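Narrative of accomplishments. A recurring question from our advisory board has been how the design workflow behaves on a single, concrete structure rather than in aggregate. To address it, we present the structure tokens for one chain from the evaluation set, followed by the sequence designed for it. No filtering or post-editing was applied between the two.
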């Protein structure tokens, strides 16, 4: 046994454990309103913050102490003042910021609650279905996706497709497949009132949320269809999916249906996790996050339906192969809008 390697892994494992407990503290801070209060007021002693946020002082003291140890907030011993730097607040307290990560504080606790089911599937096969993760995961997905969609969808992502912004302005038919709670579809409908936007999602709860949000928007509607069931007539000029294809039970059938639903001059904008299809290229913290969320959520819900279980890190190379087999003649990575977490691809029939 190499003693140095033992000590090094002890440090690594301690870091993993502290990251997990810090996530729990952040989830409590988010749900209790502490993060929002710090985002507005920035600093104070534990008792001042507790009083201002109308929270229990003992809990606030322990929460802030843990977050200070983790480097989330700063602590000044001479004054006992805790401070949430504005740069950190972008991630924790500002839900309009494209850096906002509050959705993860809903998603990850919900996902971790199903570890027994995933462990059972690891032994016996199968998986844990989407509905078993509960409504909190729907809220988390929405909170996780909405900030970047609100900031970039109509200003950067759609204009990256040559001529698309003008076509949307004049009026075309658009489908958002896997539309979730409706954020992207509603944004497109509001930005382009001459276009007709339809959202499709397999989750009845998500469709209900989307419909309630869009009651006063005449050019958007939502339906409970799978990707393989979306109508092919009268066809669509633009189809979008945002982190959807890798979750599908039958991704090839979904992609084939999307291709069939596109009009001859139509475009399909596919956003997927930014990963390689080869493990050796994903051996990073971001890769660990992708494989973790895949095993505990994305892959298992596909396998629960006897699906392909592509997994979150299926990668650009595999995505291109699937697109070709589904009949698309164009597969182009839009590097001008891709980022460290997401890759964007333009597919055309």
């Amino acid at each position: 046994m190499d003693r140095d390697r033992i000590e090094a892994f002890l440090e690594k494992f301690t870091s993993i454990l502290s990251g997990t407990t810090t996530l729990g503290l952040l989830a409590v801070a988010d749900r209790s309103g502490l993060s929002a209060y710090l985002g507005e007021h920035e600093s104070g002693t534990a008792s001042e913050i507790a009083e201002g946020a109308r929270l229990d002082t003992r809990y606030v003291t322990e929460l802030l102490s843990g977050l200070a140890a983790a480097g989330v907030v700063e602590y000044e011993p001479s004054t006992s003042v805790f401070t949430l730097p504005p740069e950190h607040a972008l991630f924790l307290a500002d839900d309009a910021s494209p850096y906002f990560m509050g959705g993860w504080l809903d998603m990850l606790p919900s996902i971790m609650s199903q570890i027994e089911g995933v462990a059972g599937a690891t032994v016996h096969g199968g998986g844990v279905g989407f509905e078993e993760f509960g409504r909190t995961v729907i809220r988390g997905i929405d909170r996780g996706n909405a900030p970047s969609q609100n900031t970039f969808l109509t200003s950067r992502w759609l204009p990256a497709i040559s001529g698309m912004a003008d076509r949307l302005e004049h009026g075309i038919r658009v489908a958002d497949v896997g539309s979730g709670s409706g954020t992207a579809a509603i944004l497109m409908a509001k930005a382009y009132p001459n276009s007709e936007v339809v959202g499709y999602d397999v989750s009845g709860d998500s469709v209900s949320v989307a419909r309630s949000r869009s009651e006063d928007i005449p050019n958007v509607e939502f339906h409970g269809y799978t990707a393989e069931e979306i109508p092919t007539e009268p066809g669509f000029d633009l189809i979008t999916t945002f982190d959807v294809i890798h979750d599908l039970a039958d991704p090839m059938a979904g992609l084939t249906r999307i291709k069939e639903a596109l009009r001859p001059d139509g475009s399909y904008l596919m956003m997927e996790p930014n990963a390689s299809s080869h493990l050796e290229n994903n051996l990073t913290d971001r890769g660990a996050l992708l494989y973790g969320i895949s095993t505990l959520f994305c892959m298992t819900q596909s396998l629960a339906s006897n699906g392909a279980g592509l997994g979150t890190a299926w990668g650009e190379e595999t995505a291109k192969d699937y697109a070709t087999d589904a009949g698309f003649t164009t597969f182009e990575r839009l590097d001008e809008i891709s980022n460290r977490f997401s890759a964007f691809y333009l597919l055309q029939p």
